[in-house]
């Protein structure tokens, strides 16, 4: 509508309103004249005036009483309203505890399939907090973050989804960290990967959930080829993804309990490509500490650029010290350094003296869903608290990375490593087998979901652990 036509409509509306008001005025004058004539010339004029006054007073009193009654009455409750629920409670379940679930299910790629599933969840008082779709050739995989009443069991929730048309459903308990939307989460993982090469396996595990990540070097310690040739674009199978490792070799991801989707494959490939483009990088953080006897040492991150200095430290170590660390022939110690110092397999802390000489190394190695910690301190610098300081820092790094446990493999006679582990002040598990001691610690402050995670795999309405 143009401005001219709008103005014309407004003027026409004003003209009609003026005519109506003028007609109402003439009508009111005529009615008043009729009533005045009846009162003035009729025999019951005073009675009519008194009756009208009483009627007006009664009407006014009733109006005042009705208004005050509604002002003091409680607000009406609308059971169909979708008002915001308190934190941690599902809509319509006030006062009832709720839990968070991550759910993935496959629905038919037909109009109304997702609506039927959402309606079924709403009938069980389940609130959908977020939804991601993964299109496939034979359907669509929908990933939900749900807030459900605590009495609703995982089996009942799986049956509800199956009855609504969901197939190959998978459930696991979630926590508040999962409330972050997908783009924000991906940006955070990309930032972690860009800052530190050692963060790539951790970022991939956080992105995909429980999975096994294996980084296979291009060649073995003896020089034999190990890694298979992976195409540049990567390989996606049902439960396996393979990529070229940016540091050489191959990177394999496995998740037996849940198939990978093309969307997940694209996200993982983006992080791997980012890591390859940026090259090897280690945060340049250095901390200077003073030992009890007054000597200053520097603790920093190490990588393959420290390979020569680490070999020189090996030459200064006794065969006993190297044997306690590597549990094998002393002559093979140098061959492990390239693997240990690579950020792809974990994180390494180095200790330098004031003159810049390397005197200790501490390794945090990713081993599937577990983490191994290992220490090597030059003989002349042992019994000064360096090993305990390195171990404390490595375990703290494992806790920050979300590792559920940290274990050390040593010999039962290695009292120094045992004392360092006990000095952490954490619950420890000991396993001794043919002289080999495995000490496992569980860092504090880990997310509860890693200790109390419940997984359910359901298909055709049957939930199975």
What does this structure look like?
The protein has helices at 3-41, 45-72, 113-123, 154-163, 182-195, 199-208, 262-278, 307-316, 319-326, 333-341, 386-400, 415-422, 448-451; strands spanning 98-107, 127-136, 139-149, 167-173, 212-216, 235-236, 240-244, 250-254, 286-290, 296-302, 346-353, 358-367, 370-377, 406-411, 428-433, 436-441, 455-459, 462-464. It is an alpha+beta fold. The chain folds into 3 domains: 98-179, Alpha-Beta Plaits, CATH 3.30.70; 182-278, no CATH class; 286-449, Gcn5-related N-acetyltransferase (GNAT) (Aminopeptidase), CATH 3.40.630.30. The longest helix is centred in the first third of the chain and has 39 residues, at 3-41. The chain is elongated. The two termini are 64 Å apart. Mean pLDDT is 76; it is low at 1-11, 71-93 and 445-465.
List the helices and strands and how they pair.
Elements: H1 3-41, H2 45-72, E1 98-107, H3 113-123, E2 127-136, E3 139-149, H4 154-163, E4 167-173, H5 182-195, H6 199-208, E5 212-216, E6 235-236, E7 240-244, E8 250-254, H7 262-278, E9 286-290, E10 296-302, H8 307-316, H9 319-326, H10 333-341, E11 346-353, E12 358-367, E13 370-377, H11 386-400, E14 406-411, H12 415-422, E15 428-433, E16 436-441, H13 448-451, E17 455-459, E18 462-464
Parallel strand pairs: 13-14
Antiparallel strand pairs: 1-3, 1-4, 2-3, 4-17, 5-8, 6-7, 7-8, 9-10, 10-11, 11-12, 12-13, 14-16, 15-16, 17-18
Helix pairs in contact: 1-2, 5-6, 5-7, 6-7, 8-10
């Amino acid at each position: 509508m143009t401005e001219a036509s709008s103005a014309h409509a407004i003027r026409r509306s004003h003209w009609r309103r003026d005519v109506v008001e003028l007609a109402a005025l003439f009508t009111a004058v005529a009615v008043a004249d009729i009533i005045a004539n009846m009162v003035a010339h009729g025999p019951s004029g005073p009675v009519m005036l008194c009756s009208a006054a009483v009627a007006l007073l009664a009407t006014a009193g009733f109006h005042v009483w009705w208004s005050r009654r509604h002002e003091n009455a409680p607000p009406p409750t609308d059971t169909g309203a979708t008002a915001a629920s308190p934190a941690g409670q599902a809509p319509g379940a006030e006062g009832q505890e709720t839990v968070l679930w991550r759910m993935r299910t496959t629905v038919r790629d037909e109009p109304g399939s997702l609506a039927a599933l959402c309606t079924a969840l709403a009938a069980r008082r389940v609130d959908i907090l977020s939804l991601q779709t993964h299109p496939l050739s034979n359907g669509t995989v929908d990933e939900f973050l749900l807030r459900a009443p605590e009495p609703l069991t995982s089996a009942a929730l799986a049956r509800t989804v199956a009855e609504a048309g969901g197939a190959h459903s998978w459930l696991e308990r979630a926590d508040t960290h999962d409330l972050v939307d997908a783009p924000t989460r991906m940006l955070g993982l990309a930032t972690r990967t860009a800052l530190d090469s050692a963060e790539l396996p951790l970022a991939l595990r956080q992105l995909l959930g429980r999975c096994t990540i294996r980084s296979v070097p291009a060649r073995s310690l003896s020089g034999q080829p190990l890694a298979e040739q992976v195409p540049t674009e990567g390989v996606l199978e049902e439960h396996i993804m393979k990529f070229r490792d940016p540091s050489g070799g191959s990177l394999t991801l496995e998740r037996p309990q849940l198939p990978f989707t093309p969307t997940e494959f694209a996200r993982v490939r983006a992080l791997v490509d980012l890591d390859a483009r940026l090259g090897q990088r280690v945060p340049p953080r250095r901390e200077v500490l003073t030992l009890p006897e007054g000597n200053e040492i520097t603790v920093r991150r190490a990588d393959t650029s420290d390979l020569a200095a680490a070999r020189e430290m090996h030459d200064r170590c006794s065969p006993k010290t190297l044997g306690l660390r590597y549990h094998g022939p002393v002559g093979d110690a140098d061959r492990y350094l390239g693997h240990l110092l690579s950020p792809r397999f974990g994180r390494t802390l180095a200790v330098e003296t004031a003159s810049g000489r390397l005197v200790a190394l501490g390794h945090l190695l990713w081993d599937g869903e577990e983490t191994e910690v290992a220490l090597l301190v030059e003989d002349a610098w042992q019994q000064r608290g360096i090993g305990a300081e390195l171990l404390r820092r490595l375990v703290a790094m494992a806790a920050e990375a979300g590792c559920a446990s940290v274990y050390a493999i040593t010999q039962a006679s290695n009292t120094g490593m045992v004392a360092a582990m006990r000095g952490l002040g954490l619950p420890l598990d000991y396993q001794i087998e043919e002289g080999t001691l495995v000490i496992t610690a569980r860092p504090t402050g880990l997310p509860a979901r890693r200790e109390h995670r419940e997984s359910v795999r359901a298909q055709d309405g049957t939930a199975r652990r």
